[in-house]
Write a structure and sequence with these properties.
Helix 1 crosses helix 14. The protein is built from 15 helices and 7 strands. It is globular. The chain is an alpha/beta fold.
């Protein structure tokens, strides 16, 4: 096609059709950049280079509006507006290897879940999730998270976290009246290294005590242990600071989640599957752009990419 033809005008700085740029972005968001040219050749019979894939993903990510990516879907927005509805919020950090070493990306997941009991086991049917993620300082992350779950929204907000200090302070300051539960399994992980080798049932008894909200009894048992004093004091400090968020018997009676498996899963499906492959290392800008694309696609916002490219054409 002649360069004078109207269709040959650059789109986001590239003489590549919006359709092809959309496909390069979608595949580059899922696959290592170097693997995309072969996929494109196989599917479309078109020859592209690895650098084309990289540049397209960077250009598209830089043009996407953060506000649109951070806006939840209609169902979740409607749920947030109702006082009799419950919305779960989970936050955790994921480490990504960059040119500046390992850096933490904070990940948030917001969703509705319905509780049911099957064969005496607690189960939850999860609705559509909305994700947020930001590399670096937590203030950048919280600003985006609050766009997705406004502190003033009417729903009952249930946070399940690992008890990180900044998370607790932020929730207390910005989400007045929200329920804050410390992840039961994270608490058990704190206890596991202290379990006496000669008493194989010690950890199981502490878990049972926690499920019955006997936190003081667990603290008393930890104090009896003959273990490294610093380790003991660290665990005791954690329990003393968070025991008001470990009323697991009450939480289970209300049908609330007490584990953060949903955010652990988010780490894998949102970031790790694309950004923590063997040998990968990211420049900061490339890392941020890929996180942005991953969040957009995970939130079902592929239409934003399509509209962007059509509007630029």
């Amino acid at each position: 096609m002649s360069k004078e033809h109207p269709f040959s005008e650059p789109v986001l700085g590239q003489r590549t059709s919006p359709f092809l740029q959309e496909k390069l972005t979608e595949l580059g968001c899922d696959e290592v950049f170097g693997e995309v040219p072969e996929r494109i050749s196989s599917l479309l019979g078109i020859t592209v280079s690895q650098s084309q894939v990289y540049r397209t993903c960077q250009n598209v990510a830089e043009q996407l509006e953060e506000k649109e990516i951070n806006t939840p879907g209609e169902v979740l927005i409607a749920t947030q507006s109702k006082q009799d509805e419950q919305v779960y919020a989970m936050i955790d950090g994921s480490m990504i290897f960059t040119d500046d070493g390992w850096q933490e990306t904070k990940v948030g997941r917001i969703f509705q879940a319905k509780h049911c009991i099957e064969n005496e086991e607690h189960r939850w049917e999860m609705g559509t999730s909305h994700y947020t993620a930001r590399r670096g300082y937590y203030a950048d992350f919280t600003a985006h998270f609050e766009q997705a779950l406004p502190p003033e929204s009417a729903c009952e907000k249930i946070f399940v976290t690992d008890g990180a200090t900044w998370i607790g302070q932020w929730i207390a300051q910005r989400y007045e009246g929200a329920v804050h539960i410390i992840d039961f399994f994270h608490v058990c992980e704190k206890l596991a290294p202290l379990a006496p080798k000669e008493d194989g049932g010690w950890l199981a008894r502490q878990k049972e005590a926690l499920l019955h909200s006997n936190v003081d009894a667990v603290i008393a048992e930890v104090k009896k242990l003959k273990h490294n004093r610093d380790d003991i004091d660290q665990v005791l400090g954690y329990f003393e600071n968070h025991k008001h968020q470990m009323n697991y018997q009450y939480y289970r009676q209300r049908g609330w989640m007490i584990g953060s498996g949903a955010i652990e899963s988010a780490h894998r499906t949102l970031l790790q599957v694309r950004m923590k492959r063997s040998g990968q290392r990211w420049a900061n800008d490339g890392c941020d752009n890929m996180i942005k694309l991953r969040v957009a696609y995970k939130n079902g916002k592929r239409d934003l990419v399509r509209k962007l490219l059509k509007g630029a054409a």
